[in-house]
Amino acid sequence: MVHCLPKVFVIQDKPMLPSTAAVAKDEHRPLAFDASILGSESNIPSQFIWPDDEKPCLDAPALVIPTIDLGAFLLGDSLAVSKAAEVVNEACKKHGFFLVVNHGVDSGLIDKAHQYMDRFFSLQLSEKQKAKRKVGESYGYASSFVGRFSSKLPWKETLSFRRLYQEYCEAMNKVSQEIMGLLGISLGLDQAYFKDFFEQNDSILRLNHYPPCQKPELTLGTGPHTDPTSLTILHQDQVGGLQVFADEKWHSVAPIPGAFVVNVGDTFMALTNGFYKSCLHRAVVNTETVRKSLAFFLCPELERPVTPAAGLVTAENPRKYPDFTWAALLKFTQNHYRADMKTLVAFSKWVQEQESNYKLIP
Ligand SMILES: C=C1C[C@]23C[C@@]1(O)CC[C@H]2[C@]1(C)CCC[C@@](C)(C(=O)O)[C@H]1[C@@H]3C(=O)O
Ligand SMILES: O=C(O)CCC(=O)C(=O)O
Ligand SMILES: [Fe+2]
Biological process GO annotation list (predicted)? Predict the structure, then answer.
């Protein structure tokens, strides 16, 4: 009901996905999230309250995270290479998540990227809205996706783009190529296999800005999901809030200055025919401090067929997913399905349905 809505909301366009929440008359119109005001609001709007079975635990135990010394791997010493390959193989088969240190990315560049981010998110909402993401597009400014969803809204604002932040993206591209070399070796493939596959790519950089929340036990900065993309290289600030699901429970991932958090996404899981798991994760918020993260999502070229390496399809491990393109999966997550922990299964079903519908047309 309109009188329940705090004044921080501004009316925007219609949502693309049907609401699953009971919405009162005027709540059919989605709203915008003004971080500067909502951070001190103790009356949390219902659209931001997550169902009980998905509510966060704020004191999750810390995960012991496998760590890769990328510098040592790149020197090519055979012992360091086989050690690194063993660590990623184990981590990716189990939960799809590891840390990378000694990666060679200048700390000044990372700091600069965070400072630019501060400048953007501290602008007034009306200014940020000038970069607003258009319906059906995956780039631009989004405040809680109020134009896309109407329940389980994430407590965050994001800015996603492809070409800006050139220097940072180039550094991430280089690191991701090196990690792809290591992932190839770890699967018994040629070091060049995934490097070649991802040499041309349609990657995305996303800046996540999580304002404080007075009731963090009710909300989520980013809901539980696996990334539909291939490999995510995330830099989180020192606040903490990232959680990973491993050994049947949620764990917190303590920030380590200068380290990158790397996780496998659904597209890479498909490329390995399910050998490597896409990592289930989420982000919680807190009452005191703004939290920021920079996520580089390595993605294949939009139209390049995503099909598993021949050596990974065997009699014991037959094909798990249909061939697809990143363009199709991206479209699926932007227009039909909100990425969660079951995206790849839902998408595979959708692809198969599309194919059988197509065959029915004479
Ligand atoms: C292709 C993508 C969709 C989301 C951004 C991303 O680049 C990779 C992860 C996806 C996401 C973060 C998963 C949780 C739900 C989501 C809506 C979000 O909270 O941001 C997802 C992103 C999206 O814009 O659809
Ligand atoms: O902010 C974080 O720590 C995680 C963000 C995330 O999972 C995402 O953007 O896909
Ligand atoms: Fe993610």
Answer: gibberellin biosynthetic process
